[in-house]
Amino acid sequence: MLIARLIAEPATLESGLAQASAALATRGWPVAQATMLEFCSNVLEIEMAKGDRAEVRAVLDAAFPGADLLLSDQPFTLPRVFVSDMDSTMIGQECIDELADFAGLKPQIAAITERAMQGELDFESALRERVALLAGLSAGAIDQCLAERIRPVEGAKTLVATLKAHGCRAVLVTGGFHQFADVVAAQLGFERVVANRLEVAGGHLTGGLLGAICHSGTKLDTLIEEAARAGDGTVSLATGDGANDIPMIAAATYGVAYRAKPKARLAADGWVESESLTAILRLLGIPQSEWVTA
Fold first, then answer.
1. Which of 101, 146, 214, 254 could form a disulfide with 106 if both were Cys (CB 3.0 to 4.6 A apart)?
2. What pTM was computed for the model?
3. Has 241 been annotated as catalytic?
């Protein structure tokens, strides 16, 4: 069984469903049922007895461009573990790029960041290269950057609070820095933070990092560790946007790419293309009456 849930423009639902049904039928995967979820507005659920996951995603993507989507090979169940990336996922910025602006280096550093997120560069090497360029920057720029530049993505706090209210543990894991992630986690309600740490001496950044690097393997290990702690068969949710997030997205029960780079999107069970992360709550089938809002 394959079950797809998607959120698309109402005006495109009929034509999109007809296009998708025809494309799936020609592949020998006819749609068994297609219904709107009564308890979660604007969510179309499509069921197929069989189908190749990657190809079904591609068919639905073509039929419903710009839609939010989640695909599962089993009935949807609420996750007990939620592990998320931070930069450009829970917040709308890349912290190192914004911090670099205070040093007058944003264009140079942002270019490296973009290539790393696209999977074109080794993450650790690219991270160390960017951090080295920040040597000598006042540590006070971190607090100023947090206050002036860093903002949560729409729906981030509601997503975390609602999942926690439904018995889910929330963990923030990032290739960014504790100096930012600890603050963001406290604002959004995450219970654990895994991140890198900028080295500071004499009130200035040294251009180095303290401790082991948090990279894609760390993110995957964190997901596995948290799922194991919750017990066998734990349903997990992971969100991210870049190449560094691919292993944990691919390993999660529900791996969701948020406005993601192409490689991360291809690795995911689904994606959110709209602005608000509350789309994930709809795709999981949590009615808005049960959302926890601040």
1. 101
2. 0.95
3. no
Which position has the token pair 């209210």?
165
Helix (H, G, I), strand (E, B) or coil at 251: helix
Q: Which of 61, 68, 85, 245 is catalytic?
A: 85
User: Where does the pLDDT of residue 39 fall: very low under 50, low under 70, confident under 90, or very high at 90 and above?
Assistant: confident
- Residue 93 main-chain phi, psi, to 5 deg: -125, 165
Q: Please tell me the distance from the alpha carbon of residue 10 to that of residue 203, in angstroms, as a whole number.
A: 54
Whether 97 is a known active-site residue: answer no
Domains and CATH numbers, the chain: 1-76 (3.30.70.260), 77-294 (3.40.50.1000)
Structure tokens belonging to residue 163: 């999942």
- Catalytic annotation, pick one of 68, 87, 97, 241: 87
Amino acid type, 46: I
- Per-residue pLDDT, 38: 82
- What are phi and psi for residue 38, nearest 5 degrees? -65, -35
C-alpha to C-alpha distance for 165 and 49, rounded to whole angstroms: 33
Per-chain mean pLDDT for the chain = 96
